[in-house]
Amino acid sequence: MTSEIILQAVISGLLMGLIYALIAAGLSLIFGLMEIVNFAHGEHLMLSMFSSFWLWTLLGLDPIFSIPITIAILAVSGILTHYFLIRYILKAKMLVQICATFGLSIFIRSFAQFLWTPDFRNVKDPILSGRIEIGNIFIGQPQLYASLICLVAFFLLYLFVNKTETGLALQATAQDRQAAEILGIPSDKMFALGWAIGLGCVAVAGVMLSNYFFIFPDVGVNFALFAFVAVALGGFGSIIGCLYAGIIIGLVESVGGLLIDPSFKLLYVFAIYLAVVIWKPQGMFGRY
Amino acid sequence: MNSSLETAKLEPVWNTNKKVVFSVVGLLISLLLFPLVDPNTFYLHLMIMIFMHAVMAQSWNVIAGFSGQISLGHGAFFGIGAYTSSFFFVEYELTPWIGILIGILFSGIIAAFIGAVVLRLSGHYFAIATLLIAISFQVVFQRWELVGAASGIWIPLTEESSWIKLQFHDGKTEYYYIFLILFVFIYFLTWMLSRSKIGFRLRAVRDDPQAASSLGINVSKYKIIAYVISAIIMAPIGSLFAQYILIIDPDRMFNIEISIIVLLITVLGGIGNVWGPLLGTAILIPISEYSRIYFGGTGGAVDLMIYGVILMLICIFRPAGLISLLPLHILEREKQR
């Protein structure tokens, strides 16, 4: 095994990790805001990939141009999720909250299967295709741009949450709902906004993934699992933690797969999850 | 104070309301006589599925309802039970009856090990860990050559029906009675458990772990006990189901759908109540079996879609489950005159 192969694995792990980071950031934002884990996160990712696929198939819109449309679709679906489901379970027991979003995930996944069959689909010949060759290392163009755009989206999210007034209002609601209400921040609207932004992040990741990933109703499951792990690793509620955690997971997945056995990738990531939540339950950057 | 607590714990079984006892006995007798009216195979199958899911949901109810730990991967123990009895039968011609016992032993041991690690987590962390564990089991069994990897195990057909090899080819009546006996046995046991000292301590751990621990209850020990008990209940159902369908593969036996359905049944019926899973099963399994008939096997997503909607509606409108709509006071003891 040469160093080039390892370098190749490191780079592809890094690129994948940035995508995991953005998906996890959406999850973490929602959790930090209202302490609800969105078990339907992977299904929302799947929806955004299908949205990109259909915009390409029906309207001939390349994924790179359909990003804003998909963001809008997912943001609206996030707001609807909040007003039709989450609003009623905000004060419920955790069991009920877990079951409700789990129910949503079952519903979306089987609905997709019902509408679009379990077939594997893909976007043929998108603008982003081919690969770049640096020395003996190959980097797929779609993968590269997906990661770059996810990184950009991640920093926009970070700036939004930390530098704008609305972002600070979001943080205030996350820290103390009642106090924020007294200051005139409507927590209900903030929650809806949190869902819109959280799923907007997923939309960016989903569209970029649809450039080179197969699209099928179960596609979100593994991504969601990795996002859960990333959020636990980075600390529930921490956004910047997701960036580091996503990269670590991407690296473990690809380098572990290279060094040991690629068919057990999930188990390596799982091992990290257990190790982190047992020894450092608050995660690396967690508030909790 | 202390003595009244003692009597509350040790309230004898025969003090139960007589009406409830009569209706339960009546129900049992009618279930025992049901195959004698010569129903068609579909109804027998439906009843077998009801018994099976009632027990599976009860298993989940023990860990999630009694001790408050939400496991999203309970199907793993179902798969372990199925694989253990089938493996020993195929490799060593060991009768599935002993295989069931070995399966119970294995799943109990595995649950104790897993529980010792993951039950230190609480809430979402535990739920996510169990989800990951269930998927890991599936990944491992899909690649484990000894147990047939992805193609699974085919249990060889016997020439004729045999109680020792637990295969019946003439009809489903024998299976009906086996599942019925297991169902009655498990429900009786969990009912006893819910009113035993362990049951009360588990609920204390669920409702307020800190208060429970300040009263001298070893919280993590009781959580592990609940996890092991619920794994032990799940395993024999896996083994019996393997004998019922005779083909097992990782995709079916470790399917995440098993974990979903036990959760759904229990939440629908009423979580934390011994009779909740039974009510949930009696409602949901007929819906699921009939929808399978109407929409066909390939459109299987339809029943999952219905499950998802039901689960969300229950969470919004009736988090205590449908059993909270019933007049539960009849279950209470008659006032002594």
Mind explaining what this structure looks like?
The complex is a heterodimer of chains A (288) and B (337). Chain A has a single domain (3-117, 142-279), classed as ABC transporter involved in vitamin B12 uptake, BtuC (Orthogonal Bundle). Chain A is mainly α and 288 residues long. The mean pLDDT of chain A is 86. In chain A, 75% of the residues lie in helices and 3% in strands. In chain A, strands 1-2 form a two-stranded antiparallel ribbon. With 337 residues, chain B is an all-alpha fold. Chain B has one domain: ABC transporter involved in vitamin B12 uptake, BtuC (Orthogonal Bundle), CATH 1.10.3470. Helices cover 69% and strands 1% of the residues of chain B. Chain B has 14 helices and 2 strands. Chain B has helices spanning 2-9, 18-33, 41-66, 75-92, 96-118, 123-143, 173-194, 197-207, 209-214, 219-245, 250-253, 256-269, 276-295, 301-317, and strands at 153-154, 247-248. In chain B, α8 (197-207) packs across α10. Mean pLDDT of chain B is 82; it is low at 1-7. At the A-B interface, α3, α4, α9 and α11 of A face α6, α12 and α14 of B.
